[in-house]
Amino acid sequence: MIAERAYRLIVTRVGRTPALLASASRIDHVEVVEIASGEVVLYWDRPAQAASALARELRGDLARMQEDEFIARWSTVES
Predict the structure, then answer these.
(1) Residues 26/53, Cβ–Cβ less than 8 Å
(2) CA distances (Å), 66 to each of 12, 56, 60, 73, in order?
(3) 33-43 pLDDT tens trace
(4) What is the Cα–Cα distance from 35 to 21, expressed in whole angstroms?
């Protein structure tokens, strides 16, 4: 099954400003949640611009990878 049907990406911004204009000290949260169980499978706290870039990569991989490929690739990325 394609990963985007099994997982949901949630990006939580701490402030209202876009990542490009955010202060360097702002930390945003990126999480991947399993749709069937509602459990968080992957979670990262990153500076705003890095979180935005990470979310773009995750969206792309969710759309083109299978579930097991996606988890295998992203579970090795450190938070």
Answers:
(1) no
(2) 25, 17, 12, 11
(3) 999 999 999 99
(4) 32
Total residues found in the chain within this entry? 79
DSSP 21: G
- What is the pTM assigned to this prediction? 0.87
Contacts of 58 (CB under 8 A, 6+ apart): 9, 30, 32, 74
Tens of pLDDT, residue by residue over 16-35, are 776 766 777 888 999 999 99
Q: Count the alpha carbons within 13 Å of 63 in the hemisphere toward its beta carbon.
A: 6
